[in-house]
């Protein structure tokens, strides 16, 4: 007998603190015409909340975020993207440089780089941003990344020592940290898509990575190593048990017939999430998700992404003066000579 997504009986107390009523970063007051062509969207749940800036990386449809304490300008980056063209073998920094330009323009002080999980569909720019801004900025990820590192290291020929000086902080459920003097952030473990997956609750803004998608898309796949649909259902249930006005920010969006969006409230998900709205049972979700995942193709950048992302965005150790990204080949016919 499975569980069911239902309305919460116990609500978590918001963890944000009271801020100044004045924010020089609050661009929501700018005329719409001035915001239309900006490469970011601005969100602020209420006057007490952090400023959230969302940047779309269009090639992989990834959302990158900068969250800002408007008083001190201490800020964190979530899930920055490194551009990779597999056809030409070119790594570039267009998406990350937009973030860096914004940080410079707004005079932000980046104090943390946050990864929601080891992404399998795009490469992380965490290491590039860290080395460009300040080598002391910690790159943070869920502690279960070590499970994925252990699984994938042999596949890509990486040694244990290759992971030294990659991630700096390993987070677990309910860990807390501050941004500036007044913004509290809480870690929530959201397994299912991947086992290491975490989210970040910053006041009413919750950064969910790939633990939930926009309501018309529903959910992400749960068939990567260590992932499973049952855990994903539990993680979605946890998110949907938050207060209705909490804002769930997603890690990707793949819109059909609408513009890219990055946020919907818990209340909207409760009513409309295609795979997990209120009343959905665990059995229904798991049956759907497992059947769907069986017919999904392998992500285009799976291997380049994983061998870079399990090292916090560091490229594999160079050999012969060149960087090599490996693609393991499976022999569908064992008679193919080695
Ligand atoms: Fe992902």
TrEMBL record:
One Pfam entry name: Lactamase_B
SMART domains listed in its UniProt record: Lactamase_B
InterPro entries (UniProt xref): Metallo-B-lactamas (IPR001279), Mito_Persulfide_Diox (IPR051682), POD-like_MBL-fold (IPR044528), RibonucZ/Hydroxyglut_hydro (IPR036866)
Keywords from the UniProt entry: Metal-binding
Single GO BP term: hydrogen sulfide metabolic process
Metallo-beta-lactamase domain boundaries: 61-252
GO MF, one annotated term: metal ion binding
Entry keyword Hydrolase: no
Keyword Metal-binding: yes
Protein's name according to its UniProt entry: Metallo-hydrolase/oxidoreductase
């Amino acid at each position: 007998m499975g569980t069911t997504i239902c309305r919460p009986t116990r609500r978590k107390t918001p963890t944000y603190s009271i801020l100044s009523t004045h924010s020089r970063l609050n661009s929501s007051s700018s005329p719409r015409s001035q915001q239309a062509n900006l490469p970011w969207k601005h969100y602020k749940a209420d006057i007490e909340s952090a400023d959230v800036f969302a940047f779309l990386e269009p090639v992989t449809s990834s959302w990158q975020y900068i969250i800002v304490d408007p008083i001190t300008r201490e800020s964190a980056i979530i899930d920055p993207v490194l551009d990779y063209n597999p056809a030409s073998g070119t790594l570039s920094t267009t998406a990350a440089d937009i973030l860096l330009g914004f940080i410079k323009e707004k005079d932000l002080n980046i104090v943390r780089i946050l990864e929601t999980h080891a992404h399998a569909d795009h490469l992380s720019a965490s290491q590039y941003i860290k080395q460009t801004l300040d080598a002391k900025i910690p790159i943070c990820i869920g502690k279960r990344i070590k499970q994925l590192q252990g699984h994938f290291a042999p596949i890509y020929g990486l040694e244990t020592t290759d992971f030294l000086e990659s991630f700096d902080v390993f987070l677990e459920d309910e860990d807390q940290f501050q941004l500036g003097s007044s913004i509290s952030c809480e870690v929530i473990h959201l397994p299912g898509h991947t086992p290491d997956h975490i989210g970040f609750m910053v006041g009413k803004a919750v950064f969910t990575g790939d633990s939930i998608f926009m309501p018309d898309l529903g959910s992400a796949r749960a068939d990567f190593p260590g992932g499973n649909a049952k855990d994903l259902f539990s993680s979605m249930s946890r998110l949907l048990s938050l207060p209705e006005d909490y804002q769930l920010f997603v890690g990707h969006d793949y819109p059909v017939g609408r513009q890219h969006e990055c946020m919907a409230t818990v209340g909207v998900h409760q009513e409309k999430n295609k795979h997990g709205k209120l009343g959905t049972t665990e059995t229904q979700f798991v049956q759907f998700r497992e059947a769907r995942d069986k017919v999904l193709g392998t992500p285009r950048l799976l291997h380049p992404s994983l061998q870079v992302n399990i090292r916090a965005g560091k490229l594999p150790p160079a050999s012969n003066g060149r960087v090599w990204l490996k693609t393991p080949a499976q022999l569908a016919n064992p008679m193919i000579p080695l």
